[in-house]
Amino acid sequence: MTTESLELAKSRYQAGKAAFENGQYRDSVENLEKASALLARNTRFGGEVDIWLVNAYEAAGRSEDAIALCQQLSRHPHYETRLQAKRLVYILKAPKLKRPKEWMTEIPDLAAISDNESKIIVTTKPKKSTLKQKSVEPEYVDLSQVNTKDNRFIWVALTAVALTISYLVWLSL
């Protein structure tokens, strides 16, 4: 491997990581695949690129490719890569849990809105006119109903602190 191909692989790797972190998973897969093709598979750096590629495959919806690559990486000569690949295979093969619709928030696609329509505010829930306005006046509390009896906790705590300090002073003498 030449230094030129190594530098190109590093730049593709960095571009793939940046695309992944920005949510551009197809670009990330493309860059990481090119970086992986330029590197030797049995090196530590090659394994690191492939682990990122597994994550990019899964994020892009290519779960089968992610699992297949992970299974290849579970036989990688570098211990950390092998361990990470085994953990990822376990996670990727786990059954997907179904989430109730109430737990999910649907984000509308705003790309179809033109500039003129973007100034219109759309509300999804109708306003309820039956809600009463809360009064701004402070609520007064009847002090005869408040329990103001001393529970003597403060005196017990102060006595315990005083005994502890005096014991520590006695020990230092």
Identify the overall geometry.
Answer: elongated
Fourth CATH level, the homologous superfamily of the domain at 3-92? Tetratricopeptide repeat domain
Fraction in beta strands: under 5%
CATH topology of the domain at 3-92: Serine Threonine Protein Phosphatase 5, Tetratricopeptide repeat
Strand tally is: 0
Rg (C-alpha, Å): 31 Å
Q: What is the mean pLDDT?
A: 84
Q: What is the N-to-C order of secondary-structure elements (H for helix, E for strand)? A: HHHHHH
The level 1 CATH classification of the domain at 3-92 is Mainly Alpha
Q: Give me the number of helical elements.
A: 6
User: How does the major sheet shape up?
Assistant: none
CATH architecture of the domain at 3-92: Alpha Horseshoe
Keywords: Membrane, Transmembrane, Transmembrane helix
Transmembrane segments: 153-170
InterPro entries: TPR-like_helical_dom_sf
Organism: Anabaena sphaerica FACHB-251
Structure description:
- With 173 residues, this protein is an all-alpha fold.
- The chain has a domain at 3-92: Serine Threonine Protein Phosphatase 5, Tetratricopeptide repeat.
- It contains six helices and no strands.
- The protein has helices spanning 3-21, 25-38, 44-59, 63-73, 79-92, 153-172.
- Helix 1 runs antiparallel to helix 2, helix 1 runs parallel beside helix 3 (44-59) and helix 3 packs parallel to helix 5.
- The chain is elongated.
- The N and C termini lie far apart (74 Å).
- The mean pLDDT is 84.
